[in-house]
Amino acid sequence: MNRGLLYYFMIPLLLFLCLLQSTAVARLKIAGVKPDLVLLMVIIGTLLYGLRPGILWAFIAGIGLDIFSGGPLGASSLAMMAAAGVAGLGHRPLSRFNPLVPLAAAALGTIVYAVVYLLILGTLALAGWSTLNLPLFETLRDIVLPVTLYNTALMLVLLPFLNRMPESQDL
């Protein structure tokens, strides 16, 4: 098994990024949109090391996001695990060295994460456990689409670094 240093430092890195996401990432806003660094790191880890560790990292990162942000506990974990599932498709069958694979994983992962998270929030509101009322289509247009573009652009910037990371040799 050939695992790079990133594999072993992923959990502390994700928890640090959760804290950063909840505090300082607001300074990276462009036109009112901030990137989702935690989600991007989970997608990168999943592309490098596969679905199994990606799901575990997504679960831990989601709990960290919920703890630091005050959101419903577990909502980010479920949404992040769904996004890791999408990114896991690019681990073996598709090569991460093809630039379209990480870009598609970032775009689709962001959309899946946002839709699952919004569905969870909507379900909690319908059940009467939350008073939050988000108009779904306006939220998708005004928040999810710009964040998807931002995350995909960041993945484009990170591609040279991603391609230098050692690939997992797990079968």
List the helices and strands and how they pair.
Elements: H1 5-23, H2 37-49, H3 51-69, H4 75-88, H5 100-126, H6 136-162
Helix pairs in contact: 1-2, 1-3, 2-3, 2-4, 2-5, 2-6, 3-4, 4-5, 5-6
Explain what the structure shows.
The mean pLDDT is 89. With 171 residues, this protein is an all-alpha fold. The termini are close together. The protein has a single domain, classed as Arp2/3 complex 21 kDa subunit ARPC3 (Orthogonal Bundle).
Short descriptors:
171 residues, mainly alpha, Arp2/3 complex 21 kDa subunit ARPC3
Quick overview:
The chain has 6 helices and no strands. The chain has helices at residues 5-23, 37-49, 51-69, 75-88, 100-126, 136-162.
Strand content: under 5%
Number of helices: 6
Any idea what the shape is? globular
Distance between the termini: 9 Å
